[in-house]
Predict the 3D structure of the following.
Amino acid sequence: MKPNPRKILLVEPPFYRLFKNTYSLARYPLALGYLAGEIKRNTIWNVMVYNADFHPRNESIKVSYLSGIGFNKYLENLTDLSGEIWKEIEQTIAEYNPSIVGISAKSQNFKSARRVAELVKKNNKDTLVIMGGPHPSLVGEDLLDYPEIDICVKNEGEKTIVELLGAIDNQTALHNVNGIVCREEGEVVETPPREFIENLDTLCFPHEHAPEVLKDYEQYPKTAFRSVFATRGCPYNCFFCGSRNVWGRKVRFRSPENVAREIGGLLKLGLKFIHFDDDTFGVNKQYIADLCRALMRYSPGLKWGCEAHPKLMDDQVVALMKAAGCFHIQIGVESGNNEILSAMRKNITIEEALEACKIVKRQGLELQAFFIVGYPQETEETLQDTITAMKNVKCDVLTYSIFTPYPGTEAFEYCMMNGLIGDDYDVALYNHQSPANHFCLNITQGRFRELVSDVEKSVDRKFRAHRLRRLCSLSVFKRIQELGIGASLKRGLDLMAGK
């Protein structure tokens, strides 16, 4: 059966569901939301967004499961295309029968994205497969080593996808579209890079088109639409990060009024809480102040969270954020050792990071602290410093990652030069909780796994305690206190959190 003309399917590949089918990315992928909105607004194409990593049950994810039995299940599901998730994807492709499929790929789910592309070609070899996202932006023309991928889109894709669809409609040469890698007459052609979008206010609000484009929209919780970007680009130069390769280091700001209007639409959906997904919220104190004032004016009663750089945190800034509705701040502490922080180029010390955490808690906000273990220069002593910092930081949620070098980044090249990565490197094996991760020059793989297993267990305990606190409403605690068992319950939760 021939594919339907002017139908494009945008796919988020499965990742968490490969570990366990009821694990889930229970959110509307913002990248695909932006693409779909621009396609709806600027073309005559029909578009559907399919988040293949979503499951309505949305079971809470355990870190120790991802790195234990779940990892073996993940590897099995990557190779066995007879599994339930792949049948679901195959059926979705066949029923929609698009002429183009766009797939968003990160390094950690790239192999899964390729599996989706293979199923697309299995359904109809004439369907055009376009792949975009962080991984294609980092590796570029190498992506077309895989015959199931026809076009690679690099960096921001909103303008590129509209021009691509226009070129296909008009049957003009694809090499006239900037920001892509494609094949022409058997040769791989990379076009000039596309300029970044300077005026972000010109972009659509992703959630506005979700009811008409998102597959199974009615099954998503309202919280799936709570993510918002206020900026693009990051001025920092962290050694391990690939963000600057995708968004650039020059920060582009949406106007505070534009952000507030988008949030106003989310409030009308019934959302009470939103999260800013920016790499670093606000970037500078003046923009934070302007945005907070806009939120206070246009979105009274809103509750929100963000990830902020420690150097931006002082009592005045955090107090203003709190007045504007902020109740949750994520801080990247990353390491408990200053030598490792210097190697990371984090531009902070552990003392500054912990002081920022204290300020957040002093102002009465919920704190989530991020840490990274297993940096190439890590030793048992520096890792112990990080473990100590993880125990000592007074946070509500503790999140840890294992250092993962992404292809196309400076960190990846460093690991290759130092013999930590070979020519047989398989991106599917490595992610922030993978038991296969080991990129340390000074700690053996067995010893490293032994150390981080203890970390994973403590993180899970803290997460369970936090979740219980969230689930127990004030009315329940009041009733417990009336029964005289409040102190015992609180002590039990504290013990679970490792306090």
Q: What stands out?
A: Residues 473-481, 488-493, 495-499 have pLDDT under 50 and may be disordered. The first strand starts at residue 4 and ends at 12.
